Amino acid sequence: EKSTDSSKTQESTMKQKKKKKQQQKKTKGDPKTGQEEESHTCCGCRFPLLFALLQLALGISVTVLGFLMAGISSSLLVRDTPYWAGIIVCVVSLVGFVMLCISYQPDEKTCVQFTVKLMYFLLSALGLVACILAVAFAAHHYLQMTKFTCDTILESCQCKVDTADPLGRTFVYQDAADCGSLTSMLNLYLLLQIALNLVTALVCLSACFVMWKHRYQVFYVGVRFYPLMATEGQQQNV
């Protein structure tokens, strides 16, 4: 009985040693295993980095364009110069970059990771609402300007929708010596604001969708790149 027990233990130890050798050979010879381990630390695999970069670029563009519009005339309202929407989107992108720097833990095992993800989702939703409001204000102002009749009076541009109506509302643009150049530049800026804020709103909506899918459903965003002999279509969960 003792001999049989000793033989069994020797066989088990030999099997374990063989398994360890095989695993070491696989890790040394097969590059797939190393890529699988590195995939957990890949920033682009655990979060769509493209969304954060797009939000940063679009947010800066909207902010700069809003300040340029404010420089045309001092009488423009804050709603007509939506630099505030661009600032919100820039803050959202910075939160996304912070989330990239946090070590990956599946299923929100860390409180910091869950808090940053929730903050990014809420700020993306806020950026979406802000961009939609900016589009609405810019479109309303642009439609008004298409009906304006403007005259230059004392270094200010005074515009009316109906010049025959003496009680009609008069829109005054201060610090404007030439009404023609002001209206053309303002129309161009308003069209650019509409286009940029629409694209930014779509990006924020896509980011919210990705975060929601990652939290409640399976959503793949990271692609593993293997040699030609590897099977295609293998993807990793966020």
Automatic annotation (TrEMBL):
Comp. bias regions, Low complexity: 1-13
InterPro entries listed in its UniProt record: CD20-like (IPR007237), Sarcospan (IPR030429)
Basic residues biased stretches: 15-26
GO CC annotation: dystrophin-associated glycoprotein complex; sarcolemma
Region Disordered, annotated ranges: 1-39
Membrane topology type: Multi-pass membrane protein
Primary location group: membrane
Location in the cell: Membrane
Entry superkingdom: Eukaryota
UniProt entry keywords in alphabetical sequence: Membrane, Transmembrane, Transmembrane helix
Basic and acidic residues composition bias: residue spans: 27-39
Oxidoreductase is among the record's keywords: no
Key word Membrane present: yes
Entry's transmembrane regions: 49-72, 84-106, 118-139, 190-212
PANTHER family given in the database record: SARCOSPAN
Full protein name: SSPN protein
Native organism: Zapornia atra (Henderson crake)
Gene: Sspn
